[in-house]
Write a structure and sequence with these properties.
Elements (H helix, E strand, L loop, with lengths): L13 H4 L3 H9 L2 H12 L3 H8 L3 H8 L8 H10 L23 H8 L9 H21 L1 H16 L7 H24 L3 H17 L3 H17 L3 H10 L10 H17 L3 H16 L16 H14 L3 H11 L7 H17 L1
Helix pairs in contact: 2-3, 2-9, 4-5, 8-9, 8-10, 9-10, 10-11, 10-12, 11-12, 12-13, 12-14, 13-14, 14-15, 14-16, 15-16, 16-17, 17-18
């Protein structure tokens, strides 16, 4: 059975296909039926052609795809690695089926970072590739799930930090930023899985690595995330203090988008502290900052989502937190039709709208 034409188009290399989050998750779990179906769908190839790539016959591919056979030989795994151009950073990923992920950071990560600025040269192609894949993961998280992607991103972080002992100067700084982006993502997923201690450990690593690399935007963002954790955990005073600090984190001024994120978080914390006039001023400031950079290319990669629509939704959320029910309802009502393609967000803001209308 052949699948529909791949979204990537004919002629795309095996390496490029591995930017797909579902394919990477299937490889990490050694889920051969899903792996084969997904790879064939993306590449637009038959079972026979897939078998040619990995050096097995079509019948065996069919049995694997239907779950009627298993891959138990490391030699066959090696054929998959070579024939499908599995990226190096995924080579060591093993199935976590039945096992809990190792949530906390490992000591060797800190050891690698400690040797970041030795004299040397490193090939940035691997780092650039992993950075582009992480961007795909951010967008795929709603569909794939952070827990499923966890071993993949951990493996990517290992590959990133292994580059550091051979890097120096601006190259080392770029790798430090990529490491911080991974640590932030891991923190966020750990928090969603109620792994509060590991989540704080990861976000602290992200902040420290960002500061060490001279990346003020990421350092601010890590502080903003920590402020969010405090607010959700029921400590608005600490949340407000941390959000305010997120505006003054490094030698470089923040980009408008990064500052907007910090100011919005401060607005939410101020509202929770019953400082509503202050919260309203911060809300307006955050919206103006976000609207000043309407294009995704003008924002840091991890703030790709802070579009004008999201800026207005955040302002509506702050109005809701300030008990300005009518204003919040008006903003939510105007924005909801544009969220049809985002079911989780739509459900969240729809519930906010219903409650605001009830209270107005």
């Amino acid at each position: 059975m052949d699948y529909m034409a791949p979204p990537y188009g004919r002629g795309v290399t095996g390496q490029e296909l591995w930017a797909d989050g579902q394919l990477r998750v299937a490889w990490g779990a050694r889920d051969w039926p899903t792996l084969i179906r997904r790879y064939r769908a993306l590449a637009g190839i038959s079972q026979s052609r897939f078998g040619e790539l990995v050096g097995v016959d079509q019948g065996y591919v069919s049995r694997l795809e239907r779950g009627r056979a298993r891959v138990t030989s490391e030699d066959v795994v090696a054929r998959f690695v070579k024939g499908l151009s599995v990226p190096e950073e995924l080579g060591g990923v093993r199935s976590s089926s039945g096992d809990e992920p190792q949530w906390a950071p490992q000591v060797e990560l800190r050891e690698r970072i400690a040797h970041a600025h030795t004299v040397g040269r490193t090939d940035m192609r691997t780092a650039d590739w992993i950075g582009s894949v992480l961007a795909q993961h951010r967008r795929a998280e709603d569909e794939v799930g952070g827990r499923a992607l966890w071993p993949i991103v951990r493996s990517q972080l290992d590959a990133v930090t292994q580059l550091l002992p051979h890097a120096s100067g601006e190259t080392a700084d770029r790798i430090m930023l990529l490491a911080a982006e991974h640590a932030h993502w891991l923190s966020w997923v750990a928090w969603q899985e109620d792994q509060r201690g590991p989540a704080l450990a990861w976000i602290d690593l992200a902040h420290g690595w960002a500061v060490d690399g001279g990346h003020s935007d990421m350092a601010s963002w890590a502080q903003r995330v920590r402020s969010y954790y405090s607010l959700v955990h029921g400590d608005p005073v600490r949340s407000l203090r941390t959000a305010e600090a997120a505006r003054y984190v490094g030698p470089r001024s923040l980009s408008p988008a990064a500052e907007a994120a910090a100011v919005h978080q401060a607005a939410m914390a101020a509202a929770a502290c019953a400082e509503r006039d202050r919260a309203r001023r911060l809300r307006d400031e955050a919206r103006d900052l976000a609207l000043s950079v309407p294009e995704a290319g003008e924002r840091p990669g991890w703030l790709y989502w802070l579009s004008p629509l999201r800026a207005h939704l955040q302002a509506a959320d702050a109005a809701y937190a300030c008990h300005d029910w009518a204003e919040a309802a008006t903003e939510f009502r105007a924005a909801l039709p544009q969220l049809e393609g985002f079911p989780r967000d739509h459900a969240y803001y729809r519930a906010r709208l219903v409650d605001a209308e009830r209270r107005a």
